[in-house]
Amino acid sequence: MSNSMPPGVTTTPYDDAYEEEMEDFSETIMPAGKFRGKIMADVPSSYLKWVAENWSDDDICEAADKEWSWRDEWKKHWEE
User: Fold this and answer.
1) What is the pTM of this model?
2) What are the boundaries of each domain within the chain?
3) Fewer Cβ neighbours under 10 Å: the N or C end of the chain?
4) Can you name the residues that pair with 29 across neighbouring β-strands?
């Protein structure tokens, strides 16, 4: 996960759980689009949801869905 937190997100006791559970997915890099070059952890929730439902690459869809689902479970969604 990147060292900087997205806007509006602060560290919590759940950060360790995030790192353990999401390491494989949160580090996936967006290959194209508005957030090209950013890791999933640094992409706003609404864009992740769109990617999970519309992207043509199954690995990218799965990574976006896992990141979005984790945020949903822990109530850590954020937007730009």
Assistant:
1) 0.72
2) 15-74
3) C
4) 39
